[in-house]
Amino acid sequence: MTDHRITRSFMASITTLTTVVLASAACSSAVHAPRAAGVEPVVAAVSPAGSWERIADPRTVGYSPAALEAVRDKVATLSTTGLMVVVGGRVLLECGDLEQLSYIASVRKSVLAMLLGNSVADGTIDLFATLEELGVEDHGGLLPLERQATVEHLISARSGVYHAASNAGDNLADAPARGTQSPGSYFLYNNWDFNAAGAVFERLTGRDIYDALATDLAEPIGMQDFDRDRLRKSGDLERSRYPAYHMWFSTRDMARIGHLMLREGEWNGRQLVPREWVATITSIVTPLEEMNPASYRRGSHGYGYMWWVWDGPDAAGPYEGAYTARGAYGQYITVLPALDMVVAHKTAVPPERQTLWRDYASVLDLLIAARCGASCR
Prior knowledge:
By secondary structure, the chain is an alpha+beta fold. The protein has a domain at 8-99 and 251-376: Beta-lactamase (3-Layer(aba) Sandwich). Helices cover 27% and strands 12% of the residues. The protein has helices at residues 8-17, 65-76, 107-121, 131-134, 151-155, 191-205, 209-218, 251-262, 275-281, 357-369, and strands at residues 27-29, 82-87, 90-96, 102-103, 248-249, 266-267, 270-271, 301-303, 308-310, 323-327, 331-336, 341-346. The strands form 3 sheets. The protein has an 8-stranded antiparallel β-sheet with strand order 1-3-2-12-11-10-9-8, sandwiched between helices. The chain has a two-stranded antiparallel sheet with strand order 4-5. A two-stranded antiparallel ribbon has the order 6-7. A hairpin with a 4-residue loop joins strand 11 and strand 12 (341-346). Helix 3 runs parallel beside helix 6. The protein is globular. The model is unreliable at 1-25 and 30-45 (pLDDT under 50).
C-alpha cells in the first residue's frame, strides 16, 4: 500500500513543483540514443560525475531490439512520464522526461531504510529499543502494549500501533482493534509506523532526514537533479504529531538509488550503506502468506524493512532475490539482481496520471521477455 490519498492543498503544491507531461512518454532504447559528446564510458558503473553510459546495441548484452519495441509500445499506452532501465550500470532503455523532479510517494520509506543503515551499524539506533524507552508518544497517548513496540517493528510494519497517521494512504481501515495485537505479531501497512520511524531517526541521530539524504546518499552517488530546497514534511499534525517526510526525485536519480542497492550499498569503491544492511532490509520479514489484509496474499510480495520483496511462487528465475520500492500513482524502483538490472519508473503529477502496479508489472515481464542471450548476438 502507498501514500495515495493526499490533501488537496498538498496536491496543489505537487503540481506547482512539477512540469506536467501530458503527451505519451517518448521511449527509446539506447541503440537510438548515442552517448552525448564529452561523456566518457564507464565500466559496469555509472560515472561519479553524473553521466550514464548508454548501451550502443542491446544485442551485445543479450537483449533483442525488436522485443524492446514491445516495451516501448506498452509504455506508450500508460501514464508513464519517465522510465529508465539500467543493466550492468549502463542504460538499456529510457523513456520520457528523466530529469523532472516529482513526488515519489511511499518510495520515501525505502529511502529511509537505506539511511538507517550506518546509524544501526554504529549503535546510534538500537532496533530493539521500545517506544516506551525512546519516549515516543502521540495525541491521546499510546496503550501500554503499543509502547512495547520496537524500532524494528516500526520499519517492518508490525508494531501493532494503530494510531491515526498524519497522512492517509495506508491500511489503517483494515486494522484490528487497538491493543489486540502484540508488537511483532501482525503485519499491517500503517503510515504511523513509517512516520514515527522517521521521527526516531531524527531524534537519535540529531539530523534532519533531508540533510542526511543529501550528505549520505544524494551527493556521494551524484544525483543530478536533487534539490534539498524542494523537500518538506507535511501532514495533519492534529491527527498525529509525526509528519510524513515526502521526497521529490527525478527518474534518473531514482535509478541511481536502485543501482546503489543492486551494488549492495557500494558506489565507486565507497561503502555508503553497509552491505549487511542492504541484505537485511531486502530480506523477508513478513512472508506472502502472512500479509494483511488477506488480499495482499494473492500478490507476489512479502515485506522486509520498508522494501517489498518478491516471495512465494513468483520469486524464482529473473525475480529470484528481487525487491522493489513502491509509491502511489506509479513510482517504482525495482532491483532484479538475477539480471543485474534496475528499473526506475515515474508517473508525475498525480492523481491526474497514475500507473497501477499491474501495468508496471507487465512492463517488467516484457523487459524479461526481451532477453535473447547469446542467440541475439
